[in-house]
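Session log. Operator J.P. requested a structure for one protein chain; no other inputs attached. Running the standard single-chain path with C-alpha cell output.
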Amino acid sequence: HERNTDTFTVPEAEFERKLPPNERHRQLGLMLIVFGVIWLVFLLAGRINFFGAASGFAQETQEIPAQTLTGTRLVVSGVSDQVELSQSDGPGITVSGTKYGYGWNNDGARAALEQLDVAVTQDGDTVRVEVRRPVPNVTVFGRSPYADLRIQVPSGVQLDVSLVSGEVIANDINANGRVGTVSGDIRVDNAQGNLTFDSTSGQVSLSNLQGELTVNTISGDIDLVQGAVQKVTVTTTSGGVDLDGVRGPVEVESVSGDVQLQDASNAQLDIETTSGEVEFAGSLANSPHSITTLSGDVRLRLPADSNLQLEASSLSGDLESNLSLRDMVQERRELKGTLGNGGPTLTISTTSGNVQVNGL
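Structure written below.
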C-alpha cells in the first residue's frame, strides 16, 4: 500500500475566524471591561441618561438650623462627620451645621440626606449632639452621608467628643475633657484647659496650647508647636512625638516612634521607648529624670549652667558629652559626672543606642 502524504490545509482567513472557545471568552471579557469603564466615566461626568432619567455622582446639602442650649457639658458622637468647635460669646452651647448626601442622581442624594439625622438633646447640664444614620450605611464611591457640625461652646465647658473617621477642629476654646477619633485627624489651635486627645491612626496637631495635655495614639503622630503646657502625658506605639514648648513634667511611653522635645523649660523627663530615638533641647527641672531605650539613640542639649548629676549607660552604644563635668568617669559602658553644683540625677539607659549630652 502506498502511504498518502497529502496534507489538508485550512485557508489562513478561515483559520483566523475559528478562534478557540477560551480565546473567544477572553476577548468577550475584555470588551465587557472596556464597556464598563466607559460607562463608569460617563456616570461620573453625569452625561448619560437611562430611560430619560439623568444619572451621575450627585451631592445634596441641607443646613442644620442653629439651636442654643444652656449646659456645662457637651457630648458629641458621630462616624464620618466633622466637628468644628469654637468659643461662644455667651453662656450657651450653640449647634448648627450642614448635612451632605450623595447618590447616583439628585433623587438618590436627597434620599440619603433624609436618612441622616442630627439629634440635639439636653439632659440636665449635659447637651448631647448625636449624628444618626441607617445601618448599613449606604456609600457612593466611598462617600457616605455626613454632617459638618459647627458648635460654639462657653468657657470652661466639659467636652466628650467621639468620632470614627471624622475630623475634629477646635479654635480659640477654653475647655476641659476628651476628644477622640479612630482614624480621623484632630487639629486644635489656641486652646486652654486640661485636654485629652485619643486616636488610633489619626494625626493629632496642636498649636498655641496651654494647660495640661494627655495624648494616646497607636500609629498617629503627635505634633505640638508654640505650646506652653504645664504637664504632658503621651502614650503611643509607633506614632512620632514632636513637642515644642513644654513647661513642666513630661511622661512619654513609645515602642518605635521617635520623641522630640524642643524649647522645653523646667521639664521633668520620664521617657521610655523601645527603638525610637529621643531628642531633647531645653532646661530641666530640679527633680530626677529618666530616659530609657533599647536601641534608640538619645541626644540631649542642655544649658551649660545646669545643675545635675549625669549617669548614662549603654551596653554597645557610644557615650559622649562636651559639657564640663566634674568628677567625670567615662568607661566603655558608662559615663558619669557632676554638672554645675550637682543636684538631681539625670539617668539615661540604653542597650545598643548612642548617647550624646551636649550644651545648647
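Operator note: Residues 1-5, 7-16, 42-56 have pLDDT under 50 and may be disordered.
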